[in-house]
Amino acid sequence: MASGAPPLVRPGAARWPLLLAGLFAVAGFLLAAQVRTELLIRRHLQVPGVRLGELGVRLQELEHRRAVLEAELAELRDQIAEAEREAAVGQSSLARQNRRVRDLRVLAGLVPLEGPGVAVELRDSPRPIRPGEDPNKTILHYTDLHAVVNDLWAAGADAVAINGERLVGTTGISCVGTTILCNTKRLAPPYRLEAIGDPDALVRYLRRPGGPLEVLEAFGFPVQVTPQARVRVPAYRGILHVTYARPQE
Prior knowledge:
Blueprint: H1 16-45, H2 49-108, E1 113-122, H3 142-154, E2 159-162, E3 165-166, E4 173-176, E5 179-182, E6 185-187, E7 191-196, H4 199-206, H5 212-218, E8 223-233
Antiparallel strand pairs: 1-7, 1-8, 2-3, 2-7, 4-5, 5-6
């Protein structure tokens, strides 16, 4: 390097003093502002410096506590949402169980029903009894009702009642003197059998050649079969009691 040549200066090196001076100025300004702010707070609130520091610590503690509570609140909201979902599932399960119980009550005959069907009316024979003739030949017997009821079930009836007595799985039909016993209730003629089902199918099966109704009519018993747009069958009113039968495991 020749003597008298200007010294080498790296690009930007001359700006460092200016930047440092600027930073010191900004820091000084912030420090002065902080001091001035603290003095103003002390002056207006008349809070000692030590007390102000305690309040700052207390404020930080409160902010931390608020954050903790917000986290707990979010967790509780999640738990509530989960409980609501479980409750919805439980209600759905309960609704299914209620529908199942309702269906079982219908099948057991414990619910009054209505629907299309047929009404069958049977009467004792009006034919006068001839001398020496057995009077039992002019009255209806429980076996006659049994035969007609079996026809109704065979034709697809959903529910059957005789003179307002609902027939269920434990129903017995038997003779007691000149009357017929059904569900422990005495029935007297005329006997009105009501069944819910397809009216056409019920009538067609009841009126089939060689069926019980045709036989009764052949022996002079009045028989009337009438399709019904609406048949009402009452609920079974007796006692359901099972002594020996148990559900199979």
